[in-house]
Amino acid sequence: MNSTFEIAVFEGDGIGPEITAPTVALLNHLAGKAGGYDLRFVTLPAGAGHYARTGESLPAESLRQAAQADAILLSAMGLPDVRYPDGTEISPQIELRIAFDLFAGVRPVRVRPGQPGPLTLPEGREIDFVLVRESTEGLFHSMGKGEVTRDEARETLRITRDVSEKLFRFAFDLAATRKQAGRGPGRVTCVDKANVFRAFAFFRGIFDEIAQDYPDLTADHAYVDATALWMVQKPWEFDVLVTENMFGDILSDLGAGLMGGLGLAPSADIGLRQAVFQPCHGSAPDIAGQGAANPHAMILSAALMLDWLGIRHENAEMRADGRRLREAVEAVVARGDSLTRDLGGTAGTAAAAEAVQRALDGAPA
Q1: Is the model's pLDDT at 121 over the cut of 90?
Q2: Is 280 helix (H, G, I), strand (E, B) or coil?
Q3: How many domains does one find in the chain?
Q4: Which one of 34, 39, 203, 364 is most buried, counting C-beta atoms within 10 A?
Q5: What span, in angstroms and rounded, lies between the C-alpha atoms of 324 and 229?
Q6: What are the DSSP calls for 165-211, one per residue?
């Protein structure tokens, strides 16, 4: 008997619904062919558009149903002209991180040989690393609560032992999984600024303690400024990077740039029980309704979701489908098949998604 997994879907704002629909269609297609699992999608209201209509950005009922789902698929959120009274953006995705303690922000960076991008890779090299960003505290701890006076403003950076230990164990477990799959050497790099800030020396110290529990993996350190340099000079040398919230926010966009843009950048925010999967890019209201949005980051985020569910529920077919979906997108981009405008092509959303569908149908299971 097939296992049925409930997926809470937040369609988002701007281009959000346009990239969600083909992604859900691809997931249904995979589940229909696999035979080892079923997916049931429940669409829930949230976002800037919902806030503008109702005064709520994330309704309590949406939060309740999302908490009961097996995974959460969240599309691009926010609109530049819809903000809270204090001027900050509508960000249900951050509210979900806090509500569900989604401490591990997973930002994969992958560039296959032959894939177009800003860097020319040396012969035989490819980029395949994961940035793990702590997603609930750090410099985002005082989000919406910073102190502002006429003469100064203050935000508070907070790093706790409890969250850091969970974060580092997640990063080492991820490196071990990648090594087992032949996708990395089994190395975790703590990215910090421990030479300047006591908070980051504390962060690094906890990392070194947890590393002792993983003697088969390599643990090392790098300062965040040097890491930014090396991500441009030698990104193929990285495996798993783990860092504080704000540093991860910045470096993840640099990683997206290595791939060719945010249109190819998936993400996941993962806790001990729940996980949210969403593209890194915004809602692009300037092109909403034109059918021109790039769906690849959303599709790649769905591939991450299948992999996470497969690991969590020991479902090999879901993991295989997650890999197939990721590789289908990579193949489409590498051969320049139906690229959208942000990638230098002319294809619309539907054509880009259809190219992934064709690649899936031609790919071995």
Answers
A1: no
A2: coil
A3: 2
A4: 203
A5: 32
A6: HHHHHHHHHHHHHHHHTTS--SEEEEEE-TTT-HHHHHHHHHHHHHH
Give the integer Cα–Cα distance in Å for 343 and 271.
32
CB 337 within 8 A of CB 352: no
Structural domain including 213 reads 106-266
User: Quick one: pLDDT at residue 363?
Assistant: 58
Q: Are residues 57 and 145 in the same domain?
A: no
**Cβ neighbours for 285, distance < 8 A, ≥ 6 positions apart:** 13, 14, 15, 79, 80
Phi, psi angles (nearest 5°) of residue 132: -105, 110
First-to-last C-alpha distance (Å) of the chain: 20
Q: Which of 266, 281, 304 is at the close of a domain?
A: 266
* Cα of 139 vs its chain's centroid, Å: 19
Dihedral of alpha carbons 330, 336, 341, 344, sign? positive
Confidence of residue 243 (pLDDT cuts 50, 70, 90): very high
Q: Residue 122 pLDDT > 50, yes or no? A: yes
- Tokens 């149903």 belong to which residue? 65
CB 116 within 8 A of CB 301: no
Nearest 10 degrees: Cα torsion 141, 228, 328, 356: 70
Q: What is the mean pLDDT of residues 202-218?
A: 98
